[in-house]
Write a structure and sequence with these properties.
The complex is a heterodimer of chains A (about 575) and B (about 190).
Chain A lengths: L1 E3 H11 L4 E4 L6 H7 L6 E4 L3 H15 L3 E5 L3 H4 L2 H9 L4 E7 L15 H5 L5 E5 L5 H13 L6 E6 H5 L1 E3 L20 H13 L3 E5 L2 H5 L2 H11 L3 E3 L14 E4 L6 H9 L2 E5 L5 H4 L10 E6 L13 E4 L2 H8 L9 H10 L3 H4 L12 H11 L5 E4 L3 H9 L8 E2 L10 H11 L5 E6 H6 L4 H7 L4 E6 L4 H10 L14 H7 L3 E5 L5 H10 L4 E6 L29 H5 L13
Parallel strand pairs in A: 2-3, 2-4, 4-5, 5-7, 6-7, 9-10, 9-12, 10-11, 12-13, 13-14, 15-16, 15-17, 17-18, 18-20, 19-20
Antiparallel strand pairs in A: 1-8
Chain B lengths: L2 E9 L4 H11 L3 E9 L5 E9 L2 H13 L3 E6 L5 E12 L5 H10 L3 E5 L3 E8 L1 H12 L3 E6 L3 E4 L18 H11 L1
Antiparallel strand pairs in B: 1-3, 1-4, 2-3, 5-7, 5-8, 5-9, 6-7
The chains are: A alpha/beta (about 575), B alpha+beta (about 190).
Chain lengths: ~575, ~190
């Protein structure tokens, strides 16, 4: 059948199962928007900035496991997408971005709103395409969806010239099947690697699983738990791993790395075998590579061969899908008793619980950690929490216990401020029946707060908790620790968030006391529309524990000791740090 | 830093050279030489890439090349028996007095004189980099006006030259490669 290129775009999106497109129209993509009116089965969400469109597609993909779609025009529309594409690339999130391009005859002429978008996005996409003929649109989009979702997922950008959208050709979906002779999403390890891995697993005394995003992406939750339970191996999580297995599982130690608990990091340093499952040894989880887990043999199960031996040299590298690999390994895994090792890890907790801010009495101050822990409590841990980047993100990871998969959505690798609000919109479209919370700082929230208008226009119900400390808190913390408290450009003025919410015809709530948190959270949950909550928390509070960037993983700055009243009075006190005292 | 020579088969599509070059820049791998040309197969181009890399880095380069959707196959021919060739054109300043001496020297290197002028001649030489370097050294005393090299092309010897595809099923690095790399990094 004859279709215009623009119609083919929507025909393909429909066949790929796309229900939502997050986008913003403009000159070079106008033919496609014009054709949109003929395809009412796909709901277009008008964003307020194209960065928001990419984060929404990203949030949609992370919450649903399906490919998210963002659309924009050429030039500035496409370049505004760059941050969102890079975010999805770093965290292996499957999104397809469709951009309009100037007419094929005008390419290279510096035409109005022309940018070399495939050139700009080349290093931050899994793959990208420039399409100049209507005949190529169907195959290209099919390939784009296939590449985005298969293997190690990632963003794919398809740049379509205006004339390709306008011209007419035969549309044959079946004939447009992907032709990708060089694409290998399903590499498999050699059998001898499996045997080597099993020999290490079955003889280890102090084994530890490092669980990453790969668990959720490959759907390996059941396999990982079965594996860990049979061999009695404790599990440490990366930030993006959280929720991959239940936080309440007895073998789940919680988060590792820069803001992981000291005893988790110490367990890594003392282990004799590390099993890296779908994670990539990011510098935020390894600390100093020269002293990282020197006692341990290492097995790396990873779908992307280029990740193996990249940062940490491993003894066995198994390329493949985590779920399938564990299925294959399982018959050879022997039941084991590592109770001595597990007891030892438990002992290493020491006075951690006492030092924890949750153990401190309510001093009338509002601490971010309290807000987030209360939020976990009152939502019964069942919400999808979408965080921004910074201190609140780490407190969320520490104090909101995620038992369910895809219940924490956060920008890990790129650390993109401004991610939370738009990503939460995408997550809400993916899971309309779920309670979606944004936890953002006052800094990051202001980067993309225009998307409140999108929320209002789409009539969405999202609860937005702004952890407002009047600073770019994480940067301020680094300035406090490493730059002698010179707070360069970190104090930050914010608008009245309650009035701001009201300006968008949304509800605004301000909370300044811990005693008010419960009522406010309950009020927000009960309200039918979106509620923006301004939590005025302690201004100079810091995230503990902390491995300073580049320091040894077990050289942690621990939480201040609780005996000090200073804690209640002024937040973290530098005089009370334990440097490396956790060993 | 030791050198590694890769032969990569890529789809002959716009922008593929850019993708390969961008990968090396992005990952901070150092290209010494990169050549591209047609193969016996329609739609398939062949690249010979020489890089400064230890064995561990070479494995990473190979794995990263495979991640490019348009890359069909990558062979690390460094340790294979392979024919490795470079072509150079060298324009040498000559006088009637020393012209025949230059031609004789070129002859010794099995190089060909492809252009002769009153004050210069162009020598064409094919061979390994070493051989070309030596000829250049010899010609320097006469005065080199300009020269150009194509960069290396490589091909494994024998009928079974093509390695099984894909070779990258196991990413584990052989024991000796690891210790070699460690020794190098010290």
């Amino acid at each position: 059948m004859k279709r215009t290129g623009a119609q083919i775009v929507w025909e393909c999106l429909g066949r790929e199962g796309v229900k939502y497109v997050f986008g913003y129209p403009g000159g070079a993509i106008l033919p496609t928007y014009d054709a949109m009116t003929q395809y009412p089965g796909i709901h277009h969400v008008l964003v307020r900035h194209e960065q928001g469109a990419t984060h929404m597609a990203d949030g949609y993909a992370r919450a649903s496991g399906n490919v998210g779609v963002a659309m924009a025009t050429s030039g500035p529309g496409a370049t505004n997408m760059v941050t969102g594409i890079a975010t999805a690339m770093m965290d292996s999130v499957p999104i397809v971005c469709i951009t309009g391009q100037v007419g094929s005859k005008a390419i290279g002429s510096d035409a109005f709103q022309e940018t070399d978008v495939t050139g700009v996005t080349l290093p931050i996409t899994k793959h990208n395409y420039l399409v100049t003929r209507a005949e190529d649109i169907a195959r290209t989009l099919r390939e784009a969806f296939y590449i985005a979702a298969s293997g190690r997922p990632g963003p794919v950008l398809v740049d379509i010239t205006k004339d390709a959208q306008q011209s007419t050709c035969d549309f044959d979906w079946d004939a447009a099947a992907p032709k990708l002779p060089g694409y290998r999403p399903d590499l498999r390890a050699l059998p001898e690697e499996f045997q080597k891995a099993l020999d290490l697993i079955n003889t280890a005394q102090r084994p530890l699983i490092l669980a990453g995003h790969g668990i959720t992406m490959s759907g390996a939750r059941k396999q990982v738990l079965e594996f860990a339970e049979r061999a009695q191996i404790p599990i440490a999580m990366t930030l993006l791993g959280l929720g991959g297995i239940p936080a309440n599982h007895p073998l789940n130690l919680g988060m590792m790395g820069m803001h992981g608990e000291a005893w988790v990091n110490n367990a890594i340093q003392q282990a004799d075998l590390l099993l890296a499952f779908g994670m990539r040894f990011d510098d935020r989880v390894t600390g100093n590579l020269k002293t990282y887990a020197l006692n341990a043999k290492k097995i790396h199960i990873e779908i992307d061969p280029s990740e193996i031996n990249k940062n940490v040299k491993v003894d066995v590298g198994i390329v493949g899908d985590l779920r399938e690999t564990l299925d294959e390994l399982m018959p050879g895994v022997k039941s084991a008793d590592h109770s001595a090792w597990l007891d030892h890890i438990d002992e290493m907790k020491g006075d951690t619980a006492v030092r924890d801010i949750q153990s401190l009495p309510d001093s009338g101050h509002l601490y971010a950690a309290h807000v987030i822990n209360d939020l976990w409590h009152y939502t019964e841990g069942k919400a999808i929490v979408v965080t921004d980047v910074g201190q609140h993100q780490m407190w969320e990871a520490q104090y909101y216990k995620h038992d369910e998969e895809r219940s924490l959505i956060t920008s890990g690798g790129l650390g993109t401020m401004g991610f939370a609000l738009p990503a939460a919109i995408g997550a809400k479209f993916a899971c309309p029946e779920k309670e979606v919370w944004v936890v953002a700082g006052d800094g990051g929230f202001q980067m993309t707060m225009a998307e409140l208008a999108t929320i209002a226009q789409e009539n969405l119900k999202i609860n937005v908790a702004i952890i407002n400390n009047g600073y770019l808190g994480m940067v301020r913390q680094w300035q406090e620790f490493f730059y002698e408290k010179r707070y360069a450009a970190t104090p930050m003025l914010s608008p009245d968030f309650v009035k701001l919410a009201e300006a968008f015809d949304l509800k605004g709530v301000r909370v300044t006391q811990r005693s008010e948190v419960k009522a406010a959270v309950e009020e927000a949950r009960a309200h039918s529309g979106t509620v923006v909550m301004d939590f005025r928390v302690e201004q100079e509070d810091s995230v503990f524990p902390m491995v300073p960037a580049g320091a040894d993983l077990d050289a942690m700055i621990r939480r201040p000791k609780p005996k000090v009243d200073v804690m209640a009075e002024t937040g973290a006190d530098s005089g009370e740090w334990d440097l490396g005292g956790s060993k | 830093m030791p050198k590694h020579t890769f032969v990569a088969y890529v789809e002959d599509k716009p922008g593929v050279l850019n993708r390969v070059a961008s990968l090396f820049r992005r990952r901070n791998f150092n290209i010494e030489s990169l050549t591209v040309g047609h193969t016996e197969q329609n739609g398939v181009s062949r690249m010979t890439i020489v890089v400064d890399a230890d064995d561990l880095t070479a494995r990473r380069i190979e794995a990263n090349l495979y991640k490019l959707v348009n890359v069909l196959r990558v062979d690390d021919v460094t340790d294979n028996a392979a024919v490795v060739r470079d072509l150079a054109l060298i324009k040498v300043a000559v006088t009637p007095a020393n012209r025949s001496e230059v031609i004789q020297l070129a002859d010794v290197f099995r190089a060909r004189v492809v252009d002769v002028d009153n004050e210069s001649l162009i020598i064409e030489i094919t061979g390994t980099e070493d051989k070309i370097e030596k000829l250049v050294d010899v010609m320097r005393s006469f005065g080199i006006i300009e020269m150009v090299q194509t960069g290396i092309v490589a091909m494994s010897r024998g009928a079974a030259a093509v390695s099984p595809n894909p070779p990258l099923v196991a990413a584990a690095v052989p024991e000796e490669a690891t210790s070699q790399a460690l020794a190098m990094s010290v």
